[in-house]
Amino acid sequence: MEAALLRDGVTFLDHGKQLHLAKDPNGVRLQMDVLGPSYDVVVDQLLVAVGRAPNVEGLGLETVGVKSTISA
What we know:
72 residues; three-stranded antiparallel sheet; 3 strands; elongated
């Protein structure tokens, strides 16, 4: 998926620690501090993903002795 998006001109800015967004006449100004470089760019679209939690409900893990620390 990443390769296809890169071919379409999508730029990935990942590992952000702080994200600041502001309206800009040309789109949205994105300022982000990351591990390494910092970014200050104007973008026309933005996708933010902040992680995910596994869906273990209904698998019966406790029946077979698997402990989970995942909470909803």
